[in-house]
Inverse folding.
């Protein structure tokens, strides 16, 4: 038997329209999973078609992850339609700027999407998982789960918290058959990093520190998500898996 096969499993991926979320969804579909794609706009059709082309069943759900009531309503709607075996909390936003000038509204926006919605979705989907005695939760952390970054205080705080939440929930739910882990991508060429990649000085500084010598592509995160979602990771609990081209080792 293939320990990485996900046939018969259903995975929900937030922020599935593009970047790491899209890559995770397609990798899970390639491994045999059916998908529930979640985004904050009703523009998931292209990714849904790509999943369908791989032979999997696919549904879409639209929710503003900055609105707890909307998150709860969407999650309950998904649960009413069927079991979710795998939850990938990928959606996230970033607001760049010096800590001295960050506005409270911007700080709150980042924490609501990057942390509050992750905790709420873990609660809502983790409950049924604990009752069944099976489930896989994969949170998307960051290199800024380990470091402070520059001019991204709210994002760094949110991603440190995601790592801590991952470990805390693993402590509570591992004995109940639920694996809670995280993937910490290194510097990936996505919309969230477009501003950094457009800055020739900062881009060169970042690339010079990466032992692999280049930025990652989103699809290079998919394998780590599939691993943590699969039976191959049944004894992996509370781990934050860095997929960073060697960044943390330098």
């Amino acid at each position: 038997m293939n320990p990485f096969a996900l046939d018969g499993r259903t995975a929900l991926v937030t922020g599935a329209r593009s970047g790491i979320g899209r890559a995770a969804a397609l990798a899970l579909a390639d491994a045999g999973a059916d998908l529930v794609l979640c985004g904050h706009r009703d523009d998931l059709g292209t990714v849904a078609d790509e999943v369908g082309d791989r032979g999997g069943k696919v549904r879409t759900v639209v929710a503003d992850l900055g609105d707890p009531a909307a998150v709860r309503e969407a999650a309950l709607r998904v649960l009413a339609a069927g079991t979710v075996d795998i939850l990938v909390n990928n959606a996230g936003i970033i607001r760049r700027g010096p800590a001295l000038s960050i506005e409270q509204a911007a700080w709150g926006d980042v924490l609501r999407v990057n942390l509050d919605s992750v905790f709420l979705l873990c609660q809502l989907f983790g409950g049924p998982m604990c009752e069944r005695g099976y489930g896989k939760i994969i949170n998307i952390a960051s290199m800024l789960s380990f470091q402070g970054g520059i001019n991204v205080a709210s994002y760094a705080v949110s991603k440190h918290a995601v790592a801590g939440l991952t470990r805390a929930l693993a402590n509570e739910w591992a004995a109940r058959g639920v694996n809670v882990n995280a993937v910490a991508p290194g510097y990936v060429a996505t919309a969230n990093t477009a501003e950094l990649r457009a800055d020739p000085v900062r881009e060169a500084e970042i690339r010079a520190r990466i032992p692999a010598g280049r930025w990652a592509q989103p699809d290079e995160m998919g394998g780590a998500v599939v691993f943590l979602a699969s039976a191959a990771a049944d004894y992996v609990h509370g781990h934050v898996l860095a997929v960073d081209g060697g960044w943390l080792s330098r």
About this structure: The mean pLDDT is 97. The two ends are 38 Å apart (CA to CA). Residues 10-189+219-241 form a domain with the Rossmann fold fold (CATH 3.40.50.720). The first strand starts at residue 10 and ends at 14.
